[in-house]
Amino acid sequence: MAPPPTIAQQLASKQREISVAEFFERNRQILGFDNPQRSLLTTVKEAADNGLDACEEAGILPEILVEIAKEGDDRVRVAVTDNGPGILRKEIPNVFARLLYGSRFHSNRQARGQQGIGISAAVLYANLTTARPAKITSKVEEEEAAHVLELFIDTQKNQPRVATEDVVLWDRPHGTRIELVLKARYIRGRQSPYEYLRGTAIVNPHARIVLVEPDGTRVTFERATEERPPIAKETLPHPYGLELGELGYHLKATKKPTCTEFLTKDLQGVSSRAAKEVLAAAGLKASTAPGSVQGEDQERLLTALRAASLVAPSAEGLSPIGAMLIKRGLKNVLGDVRPDFFAPPVSRPPKVRGGYPFMVEVGLVYGGGLPADQPVQILRFANRVPLLFQQGACAITNAISNLDWRRYGLDQKGGSGLPAGPALILVHVASTKIPFTSEAKEAIAEDPEVDRELTLALQVAARHLRTHLSRRNRRDLASEKFAIILKILPKLAEKTSGLVGKPPPDLTPVITRIMDVVNIESGVTSAADGVHVPVDITNYTPRARVLELFVELPPEALGGATFAPAPDGTDPHLGRAWWTLPKLTPSGKTHLELTFPPKTDVESNDLDWYVAGIDEAHLLGADPLPGDWDVRLPRTIVEAAEAAAAEGAANGGGEEEVDYDAAESGESSAEDD
Amino acid sequence: MPRSRAKAAPKTTEEDEPKIRADALTPTLDLARQIYEQLDHGEIPRMRLPLRTKQNLAFQAREGVWKLGRQMGTRSARKLDGALMLLRTFYLVDFINEMARDKKTSTLRELYYISEAWQEAKFHSEDESNLLIEDLEVLCERLREDFRLHPEENGASVIGDLTLKERNRKGIVKTINCRDDVGDGGYSLPFNVEKEKIQLVKTSAKFVIAIECGGMVDRLAENGFDEQYDAILIHLKGQPARSTRRFLRRVTEELKLPVVVFTDGDPWSFRIYASVAYGAIKTAHISSYLATPAAEFLGVTASDIENYDLPSDHLSDQDVRALQAELTDPRFGTPEWRAEIELMLKNGKKAEQQSLAKYGLNYVTEHYLPEKLTEMGVL
Q1: DSSP secondary structure string for all residues of A479-498
Q2: Rg, C-alpha atoms of chain B
Q3: Fewer CB within a 10 Å sphere, N or C end of chain A?
Q4: B177 and B128 in one domain?
């Protein structure tokens, strides 16, 4: 099944009379060869992507080795080796030395490259700038030896020309290596091969990627997981995304004898009933041969298809990274930055734009060694390929800029534009057809549906950030208070009572006045007999408290947990359990414990604690019960909460006093004694 | 409070144990009792102190000095910083009481090192310990010497015909003339210049000239300015120490001599003059004891730089900020000072005292000072 020719193909066919060299010259910018720096990046990108794609199709965990060496003043030697399945001898010349040739060109599924121009363009560029051939080494598992070919592209005919050929022993079971000498310049930093490979490593944590730089530096992005992302399935075209020409092409190419069969079997989402309605609306007979539908009938058929209510396009053609792998990838590559916080990655459900499914994923990392006084770092990906250029023109960047990040704890002048702060935001858009701004595929075009999904996903990540920051602030405040009550206050009591010659006073009332929080402290410890989560609840407030404690955890973890004491209720579907705590007097404590089977994968972050019966300002280590939980609380708790709120209101508005130790000291330091 | 201090200071007689006033410990223990009772009543411990800020300076017309105003701040154990300062206060009180028992004294720098043993309450800088001592002075209405704490000797020098009696370390009273009995370095001021230590006997001088830089003091001494014009030269050594300011105050008060202040012509020198004449912000609680309201600013003024065409430097950004801060400092709120500061800002120039040497070594004593002093009505 071959879909209609794309723009690129049409372009090429028109230009067949002129040389591909000329075609190349005209399209250098689109192809990514407009300057020496970028040419190197494009070459690395195309070769590495080919390797990853080949491994993915063959179900192999990828290992990509990129070696870059200087070869004279303005020349660079690039060698990219993968452990893919290898390429059959007869295919090698066409794959590497013929433009617009490729097996993925005609498929309706998400893939890295789609044009089949990439790697041959790099070969052509090398041929043109240094007159050196591309050296390809490839071995398939079934053969004993590897084929080594040196290739040129015949720029008149767009045909490969094999300069030399050999068969060698290669110390790997299968794989492909391409070596090129091209006019190029190696840099590190933004828009560099390093950055590209780092981005690639983040979204492909199942790959091991090694970069050898011209000065001999070896950078290894180690594999973070053996788990491979699911392979995107090839799917049928959906009528909502079809153009007229494409419909015509499919009608002509199909082997199905009738229109009904064509509609229900060659297209996606059309039921027999829908087919019947569509054909009736288009004034066509069910038994008509698809090939005989011509001209205006085609148009009527398309109109009817678009108007029909069809099953939405399937998302099976998508290959999202997945929340788990986004987290692993970011952790792996950002390890040396030691961020404080990895927001739980957001993977939005697939949506449809036109006839094409798409989905948005967002990862957010905060703190650690990330620079605090600069705009946040943005890592953009389209179909698991890093986007390094045209950041300002990209829908991803715009979605980030249009969010008011000040509400979520980042700096942002005027509430729009790129926020600043020690954060990194990863955004991945996956689709069988990404709406790029141009053929150069550097930025994603504005589209209301994509934009809405981007915004929703970013908001979820941003809310996680806000929660983290507010918890951190409260923790900081609390640790300050703990320092006061644990270290300073007892000594102050000791010193002053010693000076006045009286016994040290009971500090409980002062401690509860200073703290004025109920502290929920939980930790996770792994032991042979299970994973224990002890929870201590201490009332550091000056009044008695009656509280309801809730925990929320992944439902599958809740299933295996045991509790002491037993909870007053659980919700296995939502992963929740709750307790009515015994009345806590000032300084009063209570304890409970959760135990999971040994080796359960539970982190502190997986457990969220909520408390009813007290307001946020007086809670530490837990959040107030969210309003949308719709829980019927015991009457005692409701009454206690109301009483506490009333008392809080009555006590509010205490006189504000100037903090002596924070008051401006004037320019007194110059007037020292 | 500082007023009562001024009266209390001369109360001691030579028979008293030097420097230490017997009732110094009582108010420190009162402070401890206050905090103890707060703790015992379940209240968050706190102290109220007058703010020692530029904004909280108030002019005392009767005394002609700037003292602390009525704005109060609270030091509370609710905040970590406040809690630490409270704890430090009582380590300090404990230390002071201990010294009194052992009849010891300590330098400010020694105290800073003593605090090494105070764990989390230790001082992180000498500024921190000095500020706390000043807080204690304010709270207890005593001077740091009453707490047996004193600065290191820094020996600001005095040259001129002034006869005084000093009780030295061995308790022997020496009579010293600050011109005839001293070397080229002059008479060196001890940190304690109170009556129990120093008594001013007599002088033939007509005025006192307080000078910022040592080089200028030497120039005036070498040129015989003190004898020719009957002057007492006092070296301020930059921002003058408490003892220097207290000595100036005593000399003018007891010997009824006018004082002029001769400094560089820059924003920092203005502050030197302000702390001599009006009182410093940090020690505003004892202005009536340290400040010399009669002191007059001689120069180098912004207009001197122009009139005498002195070699000058451009004001740095820091200088400009300092001048702008002075415009909001109540002590510089007079029309004369505002004009002076604004002129310096406008000209963008500053000059050192010693730039007068442009016209030769004798110019300052033969022309500049006689002209300025005549203008001021001192000569």
Answers
A1: HHHHHIIIIIHHHHHHHHHH
A2: 22
A3: N
A4: no
Claim to verify: residue B263 and residue B344 sit in the same structural domain: yes
With CB atoms and an 8 Å threshold, state whether B87 touches A488: yes
* B116 and B249 assigned to the same domain: no
Instruction: Choose the closest CB to B127 out of A480, A505, A669.
Output: A669
Backbone angles phi, psi at A120, to 5 degrees: -65, -30
DSSP 3-state assignment of B121? helix
- The whole-angstrom separation of Cα A241 and Cα A244 is 10
Determine the 3-state secondary structure of B158 from DSSP.
strand
Q: Which residues contact A210 (CB under 8 A, 6 or more apart)?
A: A63, A64, A65, A66, A218, A219, A220, A221
Nearest CA in chain A to B98: A499
One domain, residues B145 and B173: no
Number of domains composing chain B = 2
Q: Quick check: helix, strand or coil at residue B259?
A: strand
Clarify whether residues B91 and B198 are in a common domain.
no
Quote the Cα angle for A364-A367-A370, to 5°: 90
Helix residue ranges per DSSP H, A283-394? 295-307, 323-333
For chain A, domains (ranges, CATH) are 7-221 (3.30.565.10), 239-312 (1.10.8.50), 338-468 (3.30.230.10), 512-650 (2.60.40.1170)
Tell the residue number behind the tokens 């946040």, with chain if given: A376
Q: A486, A661, A665: which to substitute to probe chain B, counting the most B Cβ within 10 Å?
A: A661
> Could you tell me if A317 and A432 are in contact, meaning their C-beta atoms sit under 8 angstroms apart?
yes
B56 shares its domain with B111: yes
> Domain range holding B370?
157-376
**How do strand A385-387 and strand A146-154 relate by DSSP bridges?**
unpaired
Judge if B121 and B180 occupy the same domain. Answer: no
Are A160 and A98 a contacting pair, CB within 8 Å? yes
Q: For residues A410 and A419, is the Cβ–Cβ distance under 8 A?
A: yes
CATH of the domain at B21: 1.10.10.10
Residue-wise pLDDT for A411-465, tens only, equals 998 888 999 999 999 999 999 888 888 877 889 999 999 999 999 999 999 999 9
Q: Which of B122, B150, B178 represents a domain boundary (last residue)? A: B150
Tens of pLDDT, residue by residue, chain B (379 residues): 333 333 333 333 333 333 445 578 899 999 999 999 999 999 999 999 999 888 898 998 888 888 999 999 999 999 899 999 999 999 999 999 999 999 888 999 999 999 999 998 999 988 899 999 999 999 998 889 889 999 887 778 999 999 999 998 888 999 999 999 999 889 999 988 989 899 999 999 999 999 999 999 999 999 999 999 999 999 999 899 999 999 999 999 999 999 999 999 999 999 999 999 999 988 898 998 999 999 999 989 999 999 999 999 999 999 999 999 999 999 999 999 999 999 999 999 999 999 999 999 999 999 999 999 999 999 8
- Residue A659 and residue B76: Cβ atoms within 8 Å? yes
Q: Are residues B211 and B86 in the same domain?
A: no
Contacts of A670 (CB under 8 A, 6+ apart): B239, B268, B271
What does chain A come to in residues?
A: 673
